[in-house]
Each structure stands twice: as C-alpha cells, then as structure tokens.
Amino acid sequence: GQNIDQPTEMTATEGAIVQINCTYQTSGFNGLFWYQQHAGEAPTFLSYNVLDGLEEKGRFSSFLSRSKGYSYLLLKELQMKDSASYLCAVLDSNYQLIWGAGTKLIIKP
Amino acid sequence: NAGVTQTPKFRVLKTGQSMTLLCAQDMNHEYMYWYRQDPGMGLRLIHYSVGEGTTAKGEVPDGYNVSRLKKQNFLLGLESAAPSQTSVYFCAVQRGENGNQPQHFGDGTRLSIL
Questions:
Q1: Please, which residues have CB within 8 angstroms of residue B104's CB and are 6 or more apart in sequence?
Q2: C-alpha to C-alpha distance for A15 and A7, rounded to whole angstroms
Q3: Which of A64, A97, A103 to mutate to test the interface with B (most CBs of B within 10 A)?
Q4: Which residues of A touch B108 (CB under 8 A)?
Q5: Chain segment B16-47, per-residue pLDDT in tens
Q6: Which of A70, B23, B39, B52 is the most buried (most CB within 10 A)?
Q7: Angstrom distance (rounded) from CA B39 to CA A44
Q8: Which of B41, B58, B90 sits opposite A42 (nearest CB)?
C-alpha cells in the first residue's frame, strides 16, 4: 500500500527554526509537494521537489532524498503566522497525489 | 481563494437528502479535483476530471457523482446523504501539462449530515 508519515503535532518558539519530516512509501515517485493550511482555510502551495537536495524559498526550505523516501520542510525565523498545518503529498507513478495527514505546527511566543 | 470558488460554504443536511456542490474556476485550468478532508486523515480524492466532458473515480468515489459539462465548472453530487459523508470538501484545479504543477484550492464546503 501507499503510505505517507508525518508527525501529528509539533511546537516551536517564535524566532526559532523547526524541521517537519515526511517519509513516504509509494508506488513510484514523480515529485513531492509541501502545502500550508491554516485552520479553517484551504491548503496553499509551498514547494515542489523532484530531485535530491535542498530547495530554498525565503524562510522556507524543502529537502528531498529519494533513496531514503524522505523529505523535510525547514522553517526559519518562525513567526506567529506560521502556526498552521503542513501537508506533505507525493505524486505517484500514475501522477496521482497521495496526501499525508499533515503536521499541526504550534508557535509559542 | 482567488480563482477557485466553491458554493455553498456551509450546509446541514438530513440523512437521505440530496445536494450538489459547485466548484467554479476562472484560471482556465484543465484538471479539476474533488477531495474530502476528515480529522486525522490526509486529503482523499473523490473524483477528478482531466477536461471538459470527462470524469474519473478517485480513492473514495462511492456515494458521490460528478459532472463537468463546462470547462470552468465541476459539480459534486450526493444523491442520498449519509452521516459518514460529514466532512469538509475541497475543490482543486491544476494546469494539465505536467503532473508537477501545483493544485490550487477553493475555500472548502463544510457539510454536516444529521
């Protein structure tokens, strides 16, 4: 079966750095997405990785290791507005998106 | 959410009632999706469409029907609502050229079945 694992909840302090991990087992791999979803709102696109390595986009970075079936989202200089759920999704061999349950990130002052 | 509009935003139904959720887009994207989101679970694909006049089943299609008569609209129907269909429903659109294009979501419809 296809499976994506993320921690259910994480807590971090304003101004700090947090790393949200995602491991996956899917039938094939055509890329990995990270989305942000504030409570009661729609998911919004953050990043896409298809090759190994780190992609940096402002305060957010995303890393992929295809051989390990592993990705992480790194958030720097945390702000209160970063409190949200972060969804990991993998594009499988049929180009269908398989979604993780999401990681709820709580930022404390 | 700009470009993808879902109606209604909230609805309460009684078991056995029917209703249609509408997704309208002005992004001119080919692909459209209907998902449901339940606590503790990832987004689950109900049905999707790769273009006007086409539809296909996703992971959890039972109890739902869809239609895509016009490119800009994707309708999700519940013929006989059941309490297990209580959920938040999201529509998403995607440019069709490559699967690596991000999906853009509507604001969701919160549906309760009593």
A1: A45, B1, B3, B4, B27, B29, B92, B93, B94
A2: 21
A3: A97
A4: 41-42
A5: 999 999 999 999 999 999 999 998 888 999 99
A6: B23
A7: 18
A8: B90
